[in-house]
Design brief:
The complex is a heterodimer of chains A (152) and B (104). With 152 residues, chain A is an alpha+beta fold. Helices cover 19% and strands 36% of the residues of chain A. Chain A is built from three helices and nine strands; from the N terminus they run αααβββββββββ. Chain A starts with a helix and ends in a 7-residue tail after the last strand. The relative contact order of chain A is 0.21. Chain B has a four-stranded antiparallel sheet, with no helix packed on it. The chains are: A alpha+beta (152), B mainly beta (104). Chains A and B meet through helix 1, strand 4, strand 6 and strand 7 of A and strand 3, strand 4 and strand 5 of B.
Chain lengths: 152, 104
Amino acid sequence: MTSRREILKHSAVVAALLGTTGLFPQYANAAFNKVAFDAKNLADVYKGLGIGLPVLSSGVVLQAPDIAENGAVVPVGATSSLPGVKQILFLVEKNPLPLIAVFNLSDRVDAAILTRTKMAQSSDIYAVAVMNDGKVLYAKKEVKVTLGGCGG
Amino acid sequence: MADPMRIRAQAAGGNATVKVLMSHDMETGVRKDGAGKLIPAWHIAEVTATHNGKSVLTAEWGTGVAKNPFLQFTVKAAKVGDKIAITWKDNHGDSRTDEATVAA
């Protein structure tokens, strides 16, 4: 049986969701791809970014721990030895919002990025490399999380 | 105004390894406060890195980047004394720029 408290909690969530469907003036700067970052699954992320479905490639190397004790801080790294990497993306499949970050590389930086992500629960992490010739490659790794990092 | 970033740029084999630690809450927008109200998302949305004034790396971040974000990248053909500057902008319009010199 659903308690009154739970009903109230759910209606608060719904209200907040409705509130976020409006236009977002704070993202006036066109560089931020709101559609992709708000996407709830991987397919919508790729669509939002306007890229094709990634192909598994050994040319992309994803570094991530096997087990993350604290989902709030999970170190992730992506490197590629292939020439012509234009973008590196990090995605956590089972996060409420899977797209973590998009890095736009120039030819003056190595295709090697390290950062830290949050994970709500155990999930596959994807490192995606978008190449100059339009190819989209990925590497993935399952990371087990003992303590979720997205609250709620 | 946000706290300063900690940037370390170290020369290594003709390149420079840059490590950045930013100070930001990176609120996800899915957490609730004590009263059960959703805390709105507040996160760094854009990051730009320059080498001697020239843009070398830009990034877009969602709410999934961990609190007090860490970023490491390598700038090619950078030498001791070169300037590396990092700028971030969050979704509230706050921004911050800090600069470091490549060390040996």
